[in-house]
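Session log. Operator J.P. requested a structure for one protein chain; no other inputs attached. Running the standard single-chain path with token output.
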Amino acid sequence: MNNKELHNPEEDQHIFESDWLFCPICGNKLPNVQNLKFCIKCGVNLKYIKENKKLPSTTTLNPYKTTSQYPLIQRSLEVFQPPKITDEQLTDPKKHKLWSSLTSIGLPLGAFLFMNFILGGFFALLTFASFDLNTIFELTSNPYFTSLISLFELIFILFPILYIRKYLQNPTIKNRFILLG
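Structure written below.
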């Protein structure tokens, strides 16, 4: 046996005569495999295309792609939001009770305790950072430090006023204060 008998280019041409070098759908280079049935990138059925001389229907599922559990249509987020509070519900509390008495007392008390907890944590870190009591007294008596700490409390007061507007149908300042109590 010589080298020509081992490697016959006419047989190689016959083997790849019916096969494609590239996928007819996505254009990806196909591997040199004898009985390739599916494209390795898009998963199209190459055997079906060879036998029927047409592309497969788009309704058949691709065996290499997982189907999505969620719908592809993105719905507006407004569908999932609670209904907006109208002016009638704000002005007539006897018909529409917005808050319970425990909530109206508990939320401001919780916010006050949370502000003091943050301030206490800041002072604890300050105490452990410098053990010099004179430095701590000078810092707490500094007017800049006092105004900075007051700004933190102002942020905790302004945040609910700004955030509550997404629940109101008519978000005026008056309606925000009525809702917050």
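Operator note: Residues 11-18 have pLDDT under 50 and may be disordered.
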